[in-house]
Amino acid sequence: xxxxxxAGHGLQERGDLAGRRVVLLGLGRFGGGLGAARWLxxxxxxxxxxxxxxxxxxxxxxxxLAAAGARLVLGGHDDVDFAAADLLVxxxxxxxxxxxxxxxxxxxxxxxxxxCLLVSRWPGPVxxxxxxxxxxxxTGLCHALLATAGRAASLGxxxxxxLLDRVERAEPGExxxxxxxxxxxxxxxxxxxxxxxxxxxxxxxxxxxxxxxxEAYAAAKRSILQRARTAVLFAEDELVREAAxxxxxxxxxxxxxxxxxxxxxxxxxxxxxxxxLASAAIPLPGRANRxxxxxxxxxxxxxxxxxxxxxxxxxxxxxxxELPPHRCQPVGTWGGVEWIDDSASxxxxxxxxxxxxxxAPAILIAGGRDKGLDAAPLLDEAQRVARAxxxxxxxxxxxxxxxxxxxxxxxxxxxxxxxxARAAALSRPGDTVLLSPGYSSHDSHAxxxxxxxxxxxxxxxxxxxxxxxxxxxxC
Length: 475
Known about the structure:
Helices cover 36% and strands 19% of the residues. It contains 17 helices and 20 strands. The relative contact order is 0.09.
């Protein structure tokens, strides 16, 4: 039987926000805050939007919301009475112990989030994906598989922006396919909400600066299972296996000796070891992406209640699917050197996976702001496959010292533009230059997207300076 039905209950029923004093804390830059604000205004709420970012930083969305009737308080929260609100909607980036949230909670104001408003109201099944690495890829693959199988589905959460505007227009049985960060899951857990089909791709250290400990971070990831009927879990991850101990629903396993596993040649096999899809038919680099595909296949099989239909959708879904932006995304090949943008890699473990997918010989550009994570996965893989490493940002000198002690050719540079210039000088035909920082961008850029844009501009400028005979683009 397919997993179906709306998840959760939420703090509010539909249509009850008209005339209510709602504060949206944190507009953000990736669409969730703006989507929530639009929806709240559409519900008739008396909306105040506040963000500590400077007004010029949020000029575009702020102007739109002001024109639609919202009150804007930017550059700080001093002019907002959080205790007087009827409802506080917080951006996932805002911790629940932040002073404005504490002020609201102490006054008895209900606190929720865009993702909670969505999950509590979505009329069809909810498929949620979390994990330290690979969750964007798995979420996108689930959406592509469902579409190819003929099932209506919408993409949202941490990828694709807010789906609140689709709640009233969703087709019967339409699936909400959500990428869920640990921050989002903290808020969902607080309200007892979650998806019916839940995927945990892996649990490796990340966001310890926010969660305080690995135990708290892992608990946030595990909370995706609290309302799930089916869990899709990574058999090769000890922390994910531990998450299954307290789960009473149906568990499906990918990797290892699980329900869908990876063959020696990289193809997908079923639990009996029989071929589901040949390696040559999978246009995704590296074993990590084969595992992502295995997870997506199991999740979609659970939603459809039909493993055969999900498997049949694989070729068509892969034909239309593209890896998420800034995740092992080719920029181009010039003079026999391939340039790849993996700016979304903000953990050493994700850089390890990207280096493994690219393979030797690689020139790695890595570094940024440390989040308190163990660098060993990045260091070990760089030692194995990197011919040279260009280290940048706050963590650049420390990376260079450690890698140099391991015999890796390493240079320290001040910024992305210089990193591209040095990588170009170090490269030779057959190399792959990989921007996969392994650290946060916040020492130099507002986010990983801006870091990616700087990298791509620098790469294209370098390519334009090459002699015409070396400018042939091959990607």
